[in-house]
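Lecture notes, unit on binding sites. The following record was shown on slide 14. It pairs a sequence with heme C.
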Amino acid sequence: MSKVITVALSAACALALVGAGALASAVGIPPQSSGLTAEQIIAARQASFDMSVMTMTELKIAVRDGTDVKKQFYPATTLTRWAKVLPTLFPAGTGAGETALDTHAKTEIWTDRAGFAKAAIDYAAAADRLSALAQAGDAEGFKEQLAVVEKTCDACHATYKAK
Ligand code: HEC
């Protein structure tokens, strides 16, 4: 009987470890090398950030105009999906002065990788909650959460993005 419990417990522990591994790989710690050039990676992340600000604008307009927040589930979810992979687009070798491209990525992204990953996790969690509120059709909660999401953008920029 106790053997059964031990087996069940180690299976549960293994599952917890798989979960932690999936999270670590989703946030990309440590930075992985890829087949893309440094310039392609920088261009991809900057385009994603530009689309993020456009998505935020769409969400703010929806709040301002009082349209059904359920329709904002899709854009809110795209922010979450991006937030989860954001750190993977900051591998070593893509910092300022390392390529011919301009980048506002600060060196703290690489010297404080855990802090940078945490900023992305906070962003993903805030955007995920926004999706849930959109799905629930909670207009008031959605409005408040949108401000929380924006704070996670600003918090990361304050430490990891050059002006
Ligand atoms: C975990 C950190 C982090 C979070 C969270 C974050 N950003 Fe950024 N953002 C950066 C960094 C770093 C850069 C600089 C990238 C570069 O130039 O290579 C950047 C650049 C940008 C840019 C300029 C892109 C360009 O074309 O050069 C915009 C716009 C932007 N972010 C908007 C946002 C918005 C809107 C959010 C939230 C919805 C957000 N960011 C969340 C780190 C973050």
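Take-home: Residues 63 and 143 are 6 Å apart (CA to CA).
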